[in-house]
Amino acid sequence: MIGLFDRLALPFLGLIDAENAHRLAIQALKLMPRGSSATDDARLSVRVFGLNFPNPVGIAAGFDKHGEVPDALLGLGFGFVEVGTVTPLPQPGNPRPRLFRLPADEGVINRLGFNSEGGQAVLARLAARAGAGGLVGVNVGANKDSADRIADYVSLIETFAPVASYFTVNISSPNTPGLRELQRGQLFDELLARVVDARERASRRAGLTPLLIKIAPDVSLNELDDIVGDARRRRVDGMIVGNTTIRRPRTLREAKTAQETGGLSGKPLFTLATRMLAETFVRVEGQFPLVGVGGIDSGSAALAKVRAGANLLQVYSALVFRGLGLVGEIKEALLAALERREARSLADLVGLDAADITAQSWPE
Ligand SMILES: Cc1cc2nc3c(=O)[nH]c(=O)nc-3n(C[C@H](O)[C@H](O)[C@H](O)COP(=O)(O)O)c2cc1C
Question: How many angstroms separate the CA atoms of 107 and 113, rounded?
């Protein structure tokens, strides 16, 4: 089924406007017959922040922004799905075109700007599948015109606590002006205090929902010191490293498209995102697990992310170029590493290369 979809749909989807192609992919997933995926090999299971992941390969935020197809995605073999970013009120995002492929680089640039159907629409969908099982996290964000952005995160945590397997507080999108300021100094600490408090209050109704912070790969190492210090002190459950980058590596071949404003993802992001993951890992000192995301496009790239410090992985852009078969390929590569006896379990592989990576010269 997946192989057939990839062979038929990928060449066609590659020809049409990127945002229309994404919409078509969502529609196709809605129509897909609902079968549960084959059970994963037990050696792929990961237990972190109190949740049992059948395998560590998730689909990153931004693919299913409105919670339309989480069960179809779980059925394709993802170990978890992150819905969103959801904003409290519906908002259209930036004018189109706002999504661009860089085929020669296997990269994507987006400046969608949190187009969201809003909290109530997404809540209704997730509530309708509440008994279906599978891990579905909710990635929350702030409305562009909000007077109190932190209050937006708080209200979404209250709204979604009964249906979210975990929360991701997304303060790292480059496409909402000023949003990334929430990663800095006093504002970051205030954000953490208020979202952790909202999560505690909601837990009286819904049980304690793990809370993750998603950061940009563009923060400085000094800023990362503070972010990790505050996250440890405020006892967040994990961090996702990371979002898209506003940098443009000199090596990009699609020079014209590379000038588009927005966040770059996919293969050209891999080295920077993996470096930031390792830098985060050595600062966290095992206090909480990390989700590695950015440029994973193969089994070996996934393995490198784990060795840099990731307990869990997420993919997005490479699905555009490599298709859904990537999920199975990654799972096979992780199992093959265990069979080669690189480690007894996936957990034993996590962070093995982090110190070496942080000793290298800074990636371009
Ligand atoms: C089209 C597109 C939309 C995205 N939307 C979101 C979003 O709404 N929220 C978010 O936290 N990340 C979003 N991201 C970032 C991804 O979740 C991920 O962090 C990033 O793309 C790096 O992973 P990749 O290289 O595997 O794509 C988006 C990425 C793309 C390509």
Answer: 18
Q: Closest Cα to residue 211, out of 246, 242, 268, 168?
A: 168
Residue 168 alpha carbon, nearest atom of ligand 1: 11
Q: How far apart are CA 236 and CA 49, in angstroms?
A: 10
Residue 62 Cα, ligand 1 centroid: separation in angstroms? 5
Angle at which helix 299-308 crosses helix 325-339, to 10 degrees, equals 60
Give the integer Cα–Cα distance in Å for 269 and 344. Answer: 30
CA distance 252 to 268: 7
Provide the sign of the torsion angle of the four alpha carbons 297, 302, 308, 310, taken in this order.
positive
pLDDT in tens, 132-173: 999 999 999 999 999 999 999 999 999 999 999 999 999 888
Alpha-carbon gap, residue 205 to 348, rounded angstroms: 36
Q: Which residues are catalytic?
A: 173
What is the tens place of the pLDDT at every residue in 290-317?
Answer: 999 999 999 999 999 999 999 999 999 9
Q: Residues of 215-229 as b/e, b for ≥16 C-beta within 10 angstroms?
A: bbbbbeeebbebbbe
In terms of Cα–Cα distance, which of 270, 169, 268, 185 is closest to 219?
185
H or E element: which one contains 82? strand 80-86
Q: Which residues contact 77 (CB under 8 A, 6 or more apart)?
A: 2, 37, 38, 40, 55, 57, 327, 328, 331
User: For residue 25, what are its two tokens?
Assistant: 């992919």
In the reported structure, the alpha carbon of residue 261 is separated from the centroid of ligand 1 by a whole-number distance in angstroms of: 15
Q: Is 294 in the pocket of ligand 1 (CB under 6 A)?
A: yes
Does the C-beta of 159 come closer than 6 Å to ligand 1?
A: no
Is 60 a pocket residue for ligand 1 (Cβ < 6 Å)?
yes
**In 10 A of CB 324, how many CB atoms?**
21
Q: What is the pLDDT of residues 175-207, one digit of tens each?
A: 888 888 887 888 889 999 999 999 999 887 767
Report the separation in Å between the CA atom of 192 and the middle of ligand 1, taken as the mean of its atom positions. 22
Q: Is 115 in the pocket of ligand 1 (CB under 6 A)?
A: no
pLDDT tens-digit readout, 216-259: 999 999 999 999 999 999 999 999 999 999 999 999 999 999 99
